[in-house]
Specification:
mainly alpha
Length: about 350
């Protein structure tokens, strides 16, 4: 089917196919880049900040325990303020997580952070009770609460550590996704770029050969025609412009063969006529010789006739002279008769 396309259509099809491949490559690359952009934004705006925020929560949890333990040991209530600041930092971070989960409609994660916040509040409350017991009730009362507080702190630390690990794992997952998306973009560009190059080369070779092969064939045919060779057949393999050219050359060769055949037949006829004309010329030559001899005899006869005619002319002139003389004599005789008749009439009248 492609062989029968017009050359312009074929070129348009080839360039269109290459353009389509590049467009598809560009679209896929754009989609992949958008995916990388989204993943990068999520890592930059959510995963990494919230992973760091979970670390802040873990740090503040330890700080609350440290400050309350110091208060329990020193009975210095100033440490309670530092513990309150650390607790406020934990709750502030927890509030940001809750806000994010509400926006994402992530009910499960929202319950987890609320449970973690509840556990922290219980932990903070027990810690303050422990410090107050050490300050107001003494070592024995404080130690009882500390035992319970340490268990609560250990449980909370495990929960916070687990939560922090989840955030770090999520950040790592998103980062891995970004790296995978980047690799995907690179691979997509390499694959489709290579495919586009191969398609371009294939289409270029096909179009070039589909044009140059018939042109070379037409040049070969023209060369053979220039040498007068008509002993070949032209095979037309397409219906494009070059195929039409070869078809026209085929018709020309067939007509030239017909013309040459007619010329050859005419030449044979001319040769046969020439032979007959040569034989006739020989006969005419012999006849001409005979006619020349007859002409000489006729010439002699003509000379004799001329002499005779001349003599006859002379005789005629003499005859003419005699006739004129005779006429004159007759006229004179007539006059004499007339005169005689008149004289006789006079004599008769007198008698």
């Amino acid at each position: 089917m492609l062989k029968n396309m017009k050359i312009g259509t074929r070129l348009g099809f080839g360039f269109g196919a290459v353009l389509l491949v590049f467009v598809v490559t560009a679209v896929l690359t754009l989609v992949a880049v958008n995916s990388v952009d989204r993943s990068s934004r999520q890592v930059a705006e959510e995963s990494m900040p919230f992973a760091l925020l979970s670390g802040t929560m873990a740090f503040n949890t330890v700080q609350v325990q440290q400050f309350l333990t110091d208060v329990s040991a020193t009975h210095d209530r100033e440490g309670l303020k530092d513990a309150e600041k650390a607790a406020a930092g934990f709750l502030e971070a927890s509030a940001k997580f809750k806000e994010m989960y509400r926006k994402e409609n992530d009910a499960r994660s929202l319950r987890e952070i609320e449970d973690l916040e509840t556990a922290f509040n219980q932990y903070h409350t027990e810690g303050k009770q422990m410090a107050e017991a050490y300050i107001t009730q003494g070592m024995e009362a404080g130690n009882k609460i500390m035992e319970r507080f340490d268990k609560t702190a250990l449980s909370l630390t495990r929960k916070v550590t687990t939560f922090q690990k989840q955030q770090i794992d999520e950040a790592n997952t998103h980062m891995t996704g970004v790296l995978g998306a980047v690799a995907g973009v690179r691979n997509t560009m390499m694959v489709f770029g290579g495919f586009a190059i191969l398609i371009s080369i294939a289409i270029t070779l096909f179009i070039t050969r589909s044009i140059t092969n018939p042109v070379n064939e037409a040049l070969g045919i023209s060369g053979r025609l220039a040498q007068g060779d008509l002993t070949f057949d032209i095979e037309v393999k397409s219906r494009d412009e070059l195929g039409q050219l070869l078809s026209a050359m085929k018709n020309m060769v067939e007509k030239l063969k017909t013309v040459v055949s007619d010329v050859k037949t005419a030449a044979d006829n001319v040769a046969s006529g020439s032979q007959q004309l040569s034989a006739g010329s020989e006969q005419m030559s012999q006849g001409t010789t005979e006619q020349a001899a007859s002409a000489e005899e006729a010439s002699s006869s003509v000379e004799e006739m001329n002499a005779t005619i001349k003599q006859n002319a002379d005789n005629a002139q003499q005859t003419e002279k005699i006739a004129i003389k005779s006429a004159n004599d007759a006229i004179e005789s007539g006059k004499a008769v007339t005169e005689a008749m008149a004289a006789m009439k006079q004599i008769a009248s007198k008698i």
